[in-house]
Amino acid sequence: MNKIEHIGIAVADLKAAGDLYEKLLNTPVYKIEEVATEGVKTAFLQSGPNKVELLEASNPDSPIAKFIAKKGEGIHHIAFEVDDINAEMARLKNEGFILLSDEPKRGADNKLVCFVHPKSAGGVLVELCQSIAQENL
């Protein structure tokens, strides 16, 4: 794993949260994107080398809707950048971690992603992120 790629924060209202974090971080939302397959609408902010992803449920059955119903708004996951997501998934699986998918999925912000189950990661939902090469888009 190379570095923390971003911190994901579950929010009930993306617009209101975007306004709040723009003021807090003194930087604008640079991208809003929907990931229909995950039932989520995202907004990204960058402060120096650090990124924050705000996540709003786009349907009531999405993982974000369920998270907010159970735990309320707040930190949802921490994402780590990797060079080879398939190799990292295999390594973690061999180390005994439980992955939430067998193959990486297309996520927001031009990334391939895979999540590690919080039950196998000390209660923290961990996301692996690999940038998708521009020629593969």
TrEMBL record:
It comes from Mucilaginibacter humi. The gene is mce. It holds the Pfam family Glyoxalase_4. CDD domains: MMCE (cd07249). Belongs to the methylmalonyl-CoA epimerase family. It comes from the Bacteria. The keyword Membrane does not apply. Its EC number is 5.1.99.1. Keywords: Isomerase, Metal-binding. Residues 3-131 form the VOC domain. GO terms for molecular function: methylmalonyl-CoA epimerase activity. This is Methylmalonyl-CoA epimerase. Gene3D superfamilies: 2,3-Dihydroxybiphenyl 1,2-Dioxygenase, domain 1. It is an enzyme of class 5 (isomerase).
